[in-house]
């Protein structure tokens, strides 16, 4: 005879999550230059700001998005309804062969402000140390919650990226700004504001030496290089790389914010590099656009831009881990793109194209050019995913290692070769 026992099970409740403190009932509004206004509550820093209003379709990794330097000057609207539920981690990491000093994408929040439908007052994650609201307040970044982000997204989807202003507290009762009062971050060289001012090294004992031109680098780009045993030297965006290029086995150009035409100085220097240097070059996002301008392509401002972790791209050519004809799901954050033209500049070919809007998502040097140069608009290193194209970093590092090995072999053969006949005759006479 079996007796069935009833065993009580304790239900884990959201009440066990860490309470970040209630969101104050301070009013806040988003005003768009096109005339629409949205009203909610303030969280984070209680101050008003201007910026470029954009939306991201990412459903996770809000901390990585907010610390991405490519969002500098932008009011970031998350389409995911609930933001902040897993809090914010400590942003400190070692400088070693596995990490680059930070956990997130930079040392602080880069976007001008953040807008969410519902900010979580409680958060739960074993690595979390503070709430989203507390983090924003500590970095002096305002936020707005309690607004219809779906309606904002539909507006931005229809009319494109729009200048905006967040008004907080007493500023809410003031009239919306006049059109001429809105600040346009695209008119400034945001790259110059965010790029490193002095060169610095990471993982100096790595097996190959990679120079990185910093246009606003995400930390995971640098992390992806050092974890593949690269010694990385990070340089300012407009550094004269040509004066030191022979010290390195490869060149990497990072992502960055704003209009790439502000960085024409870097494109002209790169044009000289590409014409005279035969070592591998790889660029991501802004770096891809700089490579394109150096090759002779034009960059243009897109109506909407692409931001999110779910952008499909079609590979038009094969290279390394990339197979022509395959669709890859990618992470993106950009407002500008390279112009597709026919014919393409000599020595270059399209590499990827966006499956949604047919914009150029990558270019590469042709096999006939004898060069090893790639540029992609998306982020292969995407923290939070998807990681469909992460092996492009392995491809780049492998090409740098192969070039270094070939050069070492060539140098060894030249030192072992017998001296020319004239030198042998002179030696015999002595």
Can you put this structure into words, describing what you see?
Pathway: Amino-acid biosynthesis; L-arginine biosynthesis; carbamoyl phosphate from bicarbonate: step 1/1. This is Carbamoyl phosphate synthase arginine-specific small chain. The protein is α/β, with parallel strands linked by helices and 430 residues long. The chain is built from 9 helices and 23 strands. The strands form 5 sheets. Strands 14-16-15-17-18-23-22-21-19-20 form a 10-stranded mixed sheet, sandwiched between helices. A 7-stranded mixed beta barrel has the order 2-3-12-8-5-4-13. Strands 1-10 form a two-stranded antiparallel sheet. A hairpin with a 4-residue loop joins strand 2 and strand 3. It is globular and about 80 Å long. The N terminus is likely disordered.
């Amino acid at each position: 005879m079996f007796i069935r026992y009833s065993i009580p099970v304790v239900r884990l409740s959201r009440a066990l999550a860490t309470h970040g403190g209630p969101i104050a009932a301070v009013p806040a509004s988003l005003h768009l230059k096109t005339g629409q206004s949205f009203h909610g509550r303030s969280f984070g820093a209680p101050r008003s700001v201007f910026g470029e209003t954009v939306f991201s379709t990412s459903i996770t990794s809000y901390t990585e998005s907010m610390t991405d330097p490519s969002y500098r000057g932008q009011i970031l609207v998350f389409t995911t309804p609930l933001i902040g539920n897993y809090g914010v981690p400590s942003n400190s990491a070692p400088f070693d062969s596995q990490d680059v000093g930070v956990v997130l994408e930079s040392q602080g929040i880069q976007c001008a402000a953040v807008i969410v439908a519902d900010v979580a007052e409680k958060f739960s994650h074993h690595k979390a140390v503070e709430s989203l609201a507390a983090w924003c307040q500590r970095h002096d970044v305002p936020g707005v919650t309690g607004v219809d982000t779906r309606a904002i997204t539909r507006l931005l989807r229809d009319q494109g990226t729009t200048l905006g202003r967040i008004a907080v507290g007493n500023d809410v009762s003031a009239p919306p700004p006049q059109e001429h009062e809105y600040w346009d971050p695209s008119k400034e060289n945001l790259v110059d504001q965010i790029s490193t001012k002095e060169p610095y090294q990471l993982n100096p004992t790595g097996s190959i030496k990679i120079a990185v031109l910093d246009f606003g680098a995400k930390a995971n780009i640098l992390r992806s290089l050092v974890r593949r045993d690269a010694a990385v030297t990070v340089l300012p965006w407009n550094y004269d790389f040509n004066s030191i290029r022979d010290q390195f086995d490869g060149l990497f150009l990072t992502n960055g914010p704003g209009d790439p035409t502000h960085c024409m100085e870097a494109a002209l220097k790169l044009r000289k590099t590409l014409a005279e240097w035969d070592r591998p070059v790889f660029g991501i996002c802004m770096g891809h656009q700089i490579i394109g301008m150096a090759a002779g392509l034009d960059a243009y401002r897109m109506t909407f831009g692409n931001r999110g972790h779910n952008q499909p791209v079609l590979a038009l050519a094969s290279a390394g881990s990339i197979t022509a004809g395959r669709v890859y799901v990618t992470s993106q954050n950009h407002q500008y793109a390279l112009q597709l033209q026919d014919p393409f500049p000599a020595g270059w070919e399209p590499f990827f194209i966006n499956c949604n809007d047919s914009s150029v998502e990558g270019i590469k040097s042709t096999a006939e050019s004898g060069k090893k140069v790639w540029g992609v608009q998306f982020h292969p290193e995407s923290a939070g995913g998807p990681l469909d194209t992460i092996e492009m970093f392995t491809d780049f590092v492998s090409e740098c290692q192969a070039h270094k090995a070939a050069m070492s072999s060539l140098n060894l053969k030249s030192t072992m070769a017998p001296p020319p006949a004239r030198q042998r005759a002179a030696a015999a006479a002595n």
